[in-house]
Write the structure tokens for this entry.
Amino acid sequence: MLNISIRQMHTLLAIQRHGKISAAAKSLGLTSPAVTLQLQQLEQELGCQLFLRSKSGAQPTEIGEIAIQTARRIVNEVTSLGETVQAHKGVAAGTIRLGVVSTGKYFAPRVIAAFTALHPGISMTLVAANRSEIIQKLHDHDIDIALMGRPPTSFGVNATLFGDHPLVFIASPDHPLVGKLDISREELAEQKFIVRERGSGTRSSFEFFMADTIEGMRTVPTEMDSNETIKQAVIAGLGIAFISGHTIEQECQAGRIAILDVVETPIRRQWFAIRHANRSATPALQALDDFLRVRGPSLLPVMSKPYQAMLPVQT
């Protein structure tokens, strides 16, 4: 059996995270020689080199990558054990590393505030990034749970549905289509579009919705990589956009953005809380999972009506 310590696992992860022995040592509160010694002992025990070291930094070897993935799982499991023991003792404590796709950052602080109010002994950190980055962090066990749309399929996950996710078309308030009812896809194809980057869930939904008319679009859509930039572009009158209804709450209330009444919209997607299948459900993670099932829908932003109420028809 291999004689490997948890401290060596932490050292391995610190070197991978920081890229240099000196930076890893600083993060661990150790000296560079101490970290180098731990790495040498680990490599000697495994009988192979884990990093290629140069002036530019330390790069994992193929075996090093495997060891890093194993170290992440081991550290997570030990952390889970500690939290489970604390819960068994009646101590409500733990740490949750929460990741959210870019759209989720508009409501994630509400979730954290409401959850930690019920569980003050549980601390949470938040990472917001695009879908591909969040999936990678979940895969690498850099986060414990992710809030996103459709679950990834490249590895096993446990997914909990906690709310609807409406996708809508928006325009500046003075756009000619604002106030028009039952706008067709063909009418949309005549407009200038601003869209998210390829690979995002919103972009995929847009292309699926416009599949029959996308070849006949009047102009090539302008691509932007953030919801904030897209909203500002719409407000400036650069075009219309397809976006999450949960990102435009404040702009709609302020009258800076209008939702278009497009046929068969809003498109209803779902929000999921997703955990890696290899990640044990600690008491803290289980508490968050249960909380989202019950309270999640009420913490999502409320989308405004797509058009003003129509006046009654005079007879």
